[in-house]
Amino acid sequence: MVSERDIAFPADAATLEGILSVPEPAHGIVVFAHGTGSSRHSPRNRQVADVLNEAGLATLLIDLLSEDEERMDRITGELRFDIDLLAKRLLAATDWLSSDDEVRPLPVGYFGASTGAAAALIAAGKRLETGAVVSRGGRPDLAGDALGHVRTPTLLIVGGADPQVLDLNEQALEELVAVEKALEVIPGATHLFEEPGALDEVARLARDWFDRYLRS
Predict the structure, then answer these.
(1) Distance CA 109, CA 120 (A)
(2) What are the pLDDT digits (tens) for 127-140?
(3) 2 burial class (0-12, 13-18, 19+ CB within 10 angstroms)?
């Protein structure tokens, strides 16, 4: 059985919203950091989250920008690449988890997509207790020098038909100092993994990675 509830928490002057899903029992929790044009209601993230829930992993799907900020960003495009801000918001979500009785004892991992992957890596570099990071079609290169501080086990998943992002991920993998790190390429998959079975493979890889490293 999986319990689900809407949550909200303060971050700077904003109030962020999310969906917390907790299976019984749970041995870890994964916070999702999505990229531009997505939200906590993203069907792609929801599909991956369902697979994680079935494996005994709780999930928190959050919007790293408030509704007002999202509206402004659609016009200006300024906030979607403010990686430091997104990472700060992700850390605020992590702090909120530590205050919630239901999930406080669980080890925490991050699942990042697009710019959310860079935010996840920066956050993991600041919180060394982070158990694992998975990036789906992400831009880990945008984490910059923070890659040299990430010791968290990190999995980068990229589509084989997404050559520019694949190249950026290969470079980021070299810069990561984590002992446990890997790059998985899904043949024939494009940036959004819309091809039949591609997102299923993303979910399987993410499940296995988190299941391995998120253990109390």
Answers:
(1) 9
(2) 989 999 999 999 99
(3) middle
- Between CA 59 and CA 118, with CA 44 as vertex, the angle to 5 degrees is 70
Residue with tokens 């792609």: 44
Tokens of 215: 């253990």
DSSP string, 197-214: THHHHHHHHHHHHHHHH-
For the record, the structure tokens of 114 come out as 């697009």
First to last CA, the chain: 20
Q: What is the DSSP string of 44-73?
A: HHHHHHHHHHHTTEEEEEE-SS-HHHHHHH
Chain segment 143-161, per-residue pLDDT in tens: 999 999 999 999 999 999 9
Q: Which regions in the chain score pLDDT beneath 70?
A: 35-39, 73, 75-80, 216
Cα gap 31→132, rounded to integer Å: 11
Looking at this protein, which amino acid is placed at residue 182?
A
